[in-house]
């Protein structure tokens, strides 16, 4: 997989829409020159030496027929050589706003019921459409890539495959013609074989015969490909060996598609006509119902994330978006908290004061990086779930565009534990961070927590009494959000366990907690305690003045914030991460060790921790294997990613590191901003 | 106050312009990308689901209508009809020299699509602070929707 400094700095930085100029390599022109020479030269000789006799003795139609075939061959040869095969222009910068770590290497789509993987092209900076491949010779992504043909010195793709195929067919026919008529000539001049005409004819026949075998073979091969609806690339790589080809429409249709489809358009070099429009505010707005507004407030980030996961759409900080949905916000950098209500309730104001530490979620360490298969599986699994239903927090948060500075980013980071392979090294963000059984079990709990925090308007947090998880309860007001949690009590309870533990872990950092989180935790605790075995711990937690109650929501806030503190102190250590889960774990452990979790209710917490640990090991295959030290300190299992991610975000912020796209100074600023203590939680 | 009519640069310059003269064109707040819908194969179809970023800006129905119309137009462009067949035959017979003088069926539909997008932008999207970009400029991979900052709300 590409490393940190991989695809983010692609070669296509030069022209946004065109490939960078390639070095002139004369060796590439040898095959095409040879092919041209043989074709034109042999045919010319044939016309000069053989055809006069043929036209006289056989018929005048013969040279005409041979000439027509030759012209047809030449025309197809020229089209195959000079026509743009369907090169995709490089994606522009703004199309891919995600950080390198967060985007997975593969994105899966379903085509006629078959899962097809789209790979991220680091040069062209987009996910390659199905059947598209990047030609290393031409350094371009080509649509419906067949192969790179050295004899025409061009890629064969969607636009010129027809001409290439016809070239092969016509060349085979032409070779047969030349050989055949040359044979007729030679047979009639058996006793004059020493004349120049005969000698030349025989030479031409030899060349024709020599080329006939490979050309006819290739023609036959492509006839089979066309009838099967496959490209050379797919055939050679064995993509559909024993499987079903989703791109086939039956033999007749496949042939018709190749031969009769309208010429596909060129993507490069098109005349760009800028639209002359006057776009001035004020802008029209669709009328939102109360419920819609409420829902929008709730899942502002969540919806974004989900859509983002499905379509890898990139958006800049949702500043305008949040501004759109709510009444004029207070004069704060609100873009960090897209999902937060702007109403000045006590909770909301407290919430807005909370640090946007969730940005750490974005930099989910490589919990996923080790087992690519596992990740892919996770990805698929997640994607299946996410596609099926508007997934709540984790998914949305992970994909929320503004999760640079939001709790959602935490989710994204943690969820990524289940995400696909690291696209460009570093942290990864699962494309479909399903909340179910993610490797980052605890992390997912964290992410859920964090996500639910941001998505909980104060009123909603207090309103519901749903059973399985605080998240679900928070989201009852908004249907789409209830989905993932509903997928399994085990999952939710599992997550709640996870939620609990980090909170317990963060108990040691009570003094660092911002009181604003308390109300959320309180309400969440109310919801959680009835169902969870965490009641004791919950009660205990509530006893703490500044404690974060077992409520999930602020999980994302507390731990990342705390971790951020630690991370700031240990930035150097945490920066090591080439996104290995072990390093963040170790870093976190190092960070955690100085502050003993004395404020834990040990008795209540331990069973919880063990239980959670057990669950964690069940799902966190990668982390547990890669960081044995984790087992010794359960509570920190979930936070570490955050600390790392925050550290990373800080690093990127401070260094403007090239591996991370520099985040808006929210991460650093907000962390710093969260130094102020918040009012204590009401018991 | 300068209007966009005088601003003939491509929209990627609009932001620069707005930075220089804030009273001018609205600043670009963000971009949303509508991805392709591959469920029916490699036919050019776009996802009709309204992205959440746009929910506050435009009606779901309206947007879906736009994308559906685009999908229909692209389906028409790629259709295996008599016109494309005749075009193909003619091209073969003339050794493809006909492409020098005649526009292909696909290109004709692309022009139609460009006009449609322009019209949609004029009537529906620009008044809402949005701008659709012709997907052909992105290789028919995405529809780029530029969201303009609504300064009247962010004050």
UniProtKB/TrEMBL annotation, chain A:
Keywords: Acyltransferase, Cell membrane, Lipoprotein, Membrane, Methylation, Palmitate, Phosphoprotein, Transferase, Transmembrane, Transmembrane helix. It is found in: Cell membrane. Its EC number is 2.3.1.225. The chain crosses the membrane at residues 32-55, 61-82, 163-187, 199-225. One of its GO terms (cellular component) is plasma membrane. One of its GO terms (molecular function) is protein-cysteine S-palmitoyltransferase activity. InterPro entries: Palmitoyltrfase_DHHC (IPR001594). The DHHC domain is required for palmitoyltransferase activity. This is Palmitoyltransferase. It comes from Knipowitschia caucasica.
UniProtKB/TrEMBL annotation, chain B:
It is found in: Golgi apparatus membrane. One of its GO terms (cellular component) is Golgi stack. Keywords: Golgi apparatus, Lipoprotein, Membrane, Palmitate. It is a lipid-anchor. InterPro entries: Golgin_A_7/ERF4 (IPR019383), Ras_palmitoyltransferase (IPR051371). GO terms for biological process: Golgi to plasma membrane protein transport; protein targeting to membrane. Its main location: Golgi. Residues 32-144 form the Golgin subfamily A member 7/ERF4 domain. May be involved in protein transport from Golgi to cell surface. The ZDHHC9-GOLGA7 complex is a palmitoyltransferase specific for HRAS and NRAS. Belongs to the ERF4 family. This is Golgin subfamily A member 7. It comes from Knipowitschia caucasica.
């Amino acid at each position: 997989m590409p490393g940190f400094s991989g695809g983010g700095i692609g070669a296509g930085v030069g022209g946004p829409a065109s490939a960078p100029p390639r070095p002139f390599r004369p060796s590439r022109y040898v095959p095409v020159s040879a092919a041209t020479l043989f074709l034109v030269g042999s045919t010319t000789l044939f016309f000069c030496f053989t055809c006069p006799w043929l036209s006289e003795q056989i018929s005048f139609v013969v040279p005409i027929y041979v000439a027509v075939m030759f012209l047809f061959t030449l025309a197809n040869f020229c089209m195959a050589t000079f026509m743009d095969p369907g090169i995709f222009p490089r994606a522009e910068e703004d199309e891919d706003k995600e950080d390198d770590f967060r985007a997975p290497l593969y994105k899966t789509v379903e085509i006629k019921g078959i899962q097809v993987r789209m790979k991220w092209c680091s040069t062209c900076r987009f996910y390659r459409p199905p059947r598209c491949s990047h030609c290393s010779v031409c350094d371009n992504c080509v649509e419906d890539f067949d192969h790179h043909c050295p004899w025409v010195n061009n890629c064969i793709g969607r636009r010129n495959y027809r001409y290439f195929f016809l070239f092969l067919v016509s060349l085979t026919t032409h070779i047969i013609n030349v050989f055949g008529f040359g044979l007729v000539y030679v047979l009639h001049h058996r006793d004059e074989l020493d004349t120049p005409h005969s000698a030349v004819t025989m030479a031409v026949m030899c060349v024709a015969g020599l080329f006939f075998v490979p050309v006819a073979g290739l023609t036959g091969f492509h006839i089979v490909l066309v009838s099967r609806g496959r490209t050379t690339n797919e055939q050679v790589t064995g993509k559909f060996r024993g499987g079903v080809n989703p791109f086939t429409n039956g033999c007749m249709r496949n042939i018709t598609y190749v031969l009769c489809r309208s010429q596909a358009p060129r993507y490069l070099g098109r005349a760009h006509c800028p639209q002359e429009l006057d776009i001035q505010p004020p802008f029209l707005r669709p009328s939102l119902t109360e419920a819609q507004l409420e829902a929008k407030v709730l899942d502002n980030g969540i919806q974004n994330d989900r859509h983002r996961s499905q379509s890898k759409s990139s958006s800049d900080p949702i500043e305008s978006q949040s501004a759109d949905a709510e009444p004029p916000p207070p004069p704060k950098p609100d873009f960090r908290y897209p999902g937060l209500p702007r109403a000045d309730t006590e909770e909301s104001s407290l919430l807005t004061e909370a640090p946007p530490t969730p940005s750490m979620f974005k930099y989910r360490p490589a919990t996923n990086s080790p087992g690519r298969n596992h990740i892919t599986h996770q990805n698929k699994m997640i994607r299946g779930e996410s596609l099926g239903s508007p997934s709540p927090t984790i998914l949305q948060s992970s994909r929320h565009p503004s999760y640079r500075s939001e709790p959602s980013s935490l989710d994204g980071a943690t969820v990524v534990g289940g995400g696909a392979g690291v696209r460009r090294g570093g942290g990864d963000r699962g494309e479909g961070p399903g909340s179910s059984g993610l490797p980052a079990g605890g992390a997912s709990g964290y992410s859920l927590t964090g996500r639910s925090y941001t998505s909980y308007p104060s009123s909603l947090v207090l309103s519901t009494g749903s059973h399985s998880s605080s998240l679900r309860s928070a989201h009852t007001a908004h249907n789409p959000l209830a989905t993932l949690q509903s997928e399994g009590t085990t999952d939710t309870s599992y997550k709640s366990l996870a939620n609990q533990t980090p909170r317990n872990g963060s108990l040691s950092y009570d003094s660092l907690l911002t009181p604003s989180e308390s109300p959320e935790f309180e309400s969440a605790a109310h919801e959680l305690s009835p169902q969870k075995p965490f009641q004791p711990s919950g009660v205990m937690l509530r006893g703490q003045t500044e404690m974060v109650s077992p409520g999930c929501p602020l999980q994302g806030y507390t731990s990342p914030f705390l971790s951020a503190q630690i991370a700031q102190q240990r930035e150097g250590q945490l920066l090591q991460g080439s996104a290995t889960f072990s390093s963040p774990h170790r870093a976190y452990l190092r960070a955690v060790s100085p502050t003993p979790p004395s404020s834990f209710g040990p008795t209540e917490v331990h069973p919880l921790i063990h239980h959670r640990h057990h669950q964690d090991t069940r799902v966190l295959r990668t982390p547990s294997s890669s960081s044995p030290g984790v087992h010794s300190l359960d509570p920190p299992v979930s936070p570490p990613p955050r600390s790392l991610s925050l550290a990373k975000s800080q690093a990127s912020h401070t260094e403007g590191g090239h591996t991370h796209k520099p985040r808006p100074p929210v991460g650093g600023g907000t962390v710093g901003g969260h130094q102020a203590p918040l009012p204590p939680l009401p018991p | 106050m300068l209007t966009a009519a005088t601003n003939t640069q491509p929209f990627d310059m609009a932001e620069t312009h707005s930075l220089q003269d804030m009273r001018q064109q609205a600043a670009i707040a963000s971009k949303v990308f509508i991805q392709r819908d591959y469920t029916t194969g490699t036919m050019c179809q776009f996802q009709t689901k309204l992205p959440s970023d746009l929910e506050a800006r435009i009606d779901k129905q309206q947007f879906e209508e736009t994308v559906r119309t685009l999908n229909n137009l692209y389906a028409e462009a790629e259709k295996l009809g008599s016109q494309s067949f005749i075009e193909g035959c003619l091209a073969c017979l003339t050794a493809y020299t006909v492409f020098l003088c005649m526009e292909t069926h696909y290109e004709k539909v692309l022009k139609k699509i460009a006009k449609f997008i322009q019209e949609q932008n004029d009537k529906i999207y620009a008044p809402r602070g949005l701008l659709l970009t012709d997907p052909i400029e992105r290789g028919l991979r995405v529809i780029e929707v530029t969201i303009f900052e609504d300064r009247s709300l962010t004050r």
